[in-house]
Write a structure and sequence with these properties.
Number of strands: 50
Strand content: over 45%
Distance between the termini: 114 Å
Largest sheet: 6 strands, mixed
CATH topology of the largest domain: Immunoglobulin-like
Radius of gyration: 50 Å
CATH superfamily of the largest domain: Immunoglobulins
Shape: flat
Structural class: mainly beta
């Protein structure tokens, strides 16, 4: 590849005629210029006219001050530079090879032959100019920042950066047809090491008519292309929409059409009496001749008596503006079917034996003649059912029905159904799983055992008839939780409730005589997460049986009977708590 201008050619011819010769008649021949791509390798030629003793050195720069390569001993060159000539011709061919060429290598290089004393120069070459080519960046094309009207004149800019040498060609094409081969504006921001180029073109912007910027440069094996798509910046105003309609038995079909718009991201909004209709219409967008678009929107309305004077509006929403059509009035009142009923209940499970309120609602029906029924497992429920029907402002009606159910085990695995029958011959229903909100509190049962000193005793605590199955049972000794218990697992009963047993093995020693062991259940059916009881003190050692009654639960008052024994040797404690919360066992009672 040739990169020299005419001026450079004249300089080379002049330098060739002034090739220097050494004092011993030695002539050094250097190639005037060579070129290499950045990262490549290049050979710098240096040939002597005859053999001569003494080393050769290469210097970089017009002033020959920077040593680049040396044959002298104790002087090393970079790893990128080595002799290129054949070994048998090494006395006359002192060319060098530079690898991994960088932009910083671009300069003039001189081959200098020294005499045998290694101090005096025998001959100096005319110099070789190294040109380093850097590839230009991929071209970038840009146009107006805002949307422009279809078929208007638009200026497009193409830029490329970071290339060398500065000679570059930029050509514009449209649909494979060359528009112009411009002389780009070339500038440099780093002292003429690399260059930037920019080219502009102005032309009419059409749909589907992209313009291509093509860059050619000495460092490129193939040209680089960038495409600017006018479709990204064009806009065309849609025509005023037109509404047509078709009447059917129970509804009216409305058709809204608009033409000649671009791009196709358009939206049609339907409104009734000035209020936007949320129902999604059936929209169809198609391309027309010239690349613009057409939209057709169809929406179906069920006409009600309350809406006989209502007006329907079709509105176009586009990047370029909007317009509305004439208004149509809905006629021919027909009945309107109710919406699918929705059953709502509590967000969490209800406490055992509490009342659960469930609501079934349906809306948008006309006229108000409607029947709502509740079923539990296909059996109709009529007690504790309340209906409310209200008229909506649009003339349709809403119904809300509430049923009260007690949180009890009889409703485990039961399905609640809300059924609606309307004058429009519509029958619809929804279901609700009562197991999602039902809870049944556990019943705590203890198994008595005989106490023998210095024997291992197993205490059993059984929780029965609870739902759902998630439960935690722990043993406590003197209010300290014990972690050496074991559980038997969960057992499902026929009624849908669960049973589990928690065992505790203890070594019954004299130190344990006055210990109080308590079995406690934690279950979501229990009203309070934590429950406390007052210890009942028994100080009368003579009365064989004393019945005391006192217990304190948070926000509750429960009375149970506590039994003591006359075998107590000293003051200690024994008590049972509410069966649905926990049970306490004192081995000292059985001494």
């Amino acid at each position: 590849m040739q990169y020299q201008t005419c001026t450079l050619c004249h300089i080379i011819l002049m330098l060739s005629s002034l090739i220097p010769k050494g004092t011993y008649g030695i002539t050094i021949y250097q190639t005037p210029s060579v070129a290499s791509n950045e990262g490549g390798s290049v050979i710098m030629n240096c040939t002597l006219s005859e053999e001569s003793l003494g080393p050769v050195q290469w210097y970089k720069g017009i002033k020959q001050e920077t040593l680049f390569y040396s044959q002298m001993q104790n002087e090393t060159s970079g790893a990128r530079v080595k002799l290129a000539g054949e070994e048998r011709k090494r006395n006359i061919d002192l060319s060098i090879t530079i690898t991994t060429v960088t932009l910083e290598d671009a300069d003039i290089y001189y081959c200098i032959k020294f005499k045998s004393d290694k101090q005096s120069r025998a001959a100096v070459g005319s110099g070789t100019q190294l040109y380093v080519n850097r590839k230009p960046s991929s071209p970038s094309v840009s146009g107006p920042a805002e949307k422009v009207i279809l078929n208007s004149r638009v200026t497009v800019k193409c830029t490329s950066r970071g290339f060398s040498p500065p000679e570059i060609n930029i050509t514009w094409f449209q649909k494979e047809t060359m528009l112009t081969k411009s002389s780009p504006n070339v500038t440099s921001n780093d002292g003429n090491r690399t260059y930037n180029a920019e080219s502009n073109i102005t032309l009419l912007a059409h749909i589907n008519s992209p313009v291509t910027c093509r860059i050619s440069h000495a460092a490129l094996e193939q040209p680089l292309n960038a495409v600017f798509n006018f479709n990204d910046i064009l806009k065309a105003i849609p025509s005023t929409p037109v509404i047509s309609y078709t009447k059917k038995e129970n509804a009216v079909m409305l058709n809204c059409t608009s033409l000649r718009f671009y791009p196709k991201n358009i939206r049609i909004q339907w409104a009734k009496d000035g209020k936007q209709i949320k129902e999604l219409p059936e929209n169809n967008i198609s391309e027309t001749t010239g690349g613009t678009f057409k939209i057709t929107s169809i929406i179906k309305f069920a006409v009600t008596k309350a809406n006989i004077s209502s007006s329907i509006t079709c509105q176009i929403v586009h990047l370029t503006g909007n317009s509305t059509s004439e208004q149509l009035h809905l006629k021919d009142v027909i009945s309107v079917s109710p919406s699918l009923p929705v059953i709502t209940g509590p967000s969490t499970r209800m406490t055992y034996m509490k009342i659960i309120n469930l609501t079934c609602s349906s809306s948008g029906f006309y006229p108000q003649n409607i029947t709502l029924k509740w079923f539990i497992n296909d059996l109709q429920k009529n007690e504790k059912v309340f209906h409310v029907i209200k008229e909506h402002e649009d003339g349709t009606y809403n119904v809300t029905s509430t049923i009260e159910i007690q949180s009890d085990k009889q409703y485990i695995n039961s399905v609640l159904t809300c059924q609606i029958i309307h004058l429009s011959q519509t029958l619809t229903s929804s279901t609700y799983n009562l197991s999602d909100v039902i809870t049944v509190s556990p019943t705590m049962i203890s198994e008595p055992c005989n106490m023998t000193l210095n024997a291992t005793v197993s205490l059993a605590c059984k929780a029965t008839q609870f739902y759902p199955p998630f439960i935690r049972i722990i043993w406590l000794e003197n209010e300290t939780e014990l972690f050496n218990g074991s559980s038997q697992g969960l057992f499902l009963s026929k009624d849908g409730t669960y049973t589990t047993v928690r065992y505790l093995s203890i070594k019954y020693t004299e130190e344990k005589v006055y210990s109080v062991f308590r079995c406690q259940a934690e279950h979501e059916s229990i009203l309070f997460n934590s429950t406390t009881c007052d210890l009942l003190k028994f100080k009368d050692k003579k009365d064989p049986v004393k019945r005391l009654s006192r217990i304190d639960l948070p926000k509750m008052a429960k009375h149970i009977t506590m039994v003591s024994s006359d075998f107590f040797l000293k003051e200690h404690y024994a008590f049972f708590c509410h069966k649905n919360v926990f049970w306490e066992y004192n081995p000292g009672h059985f001494l």
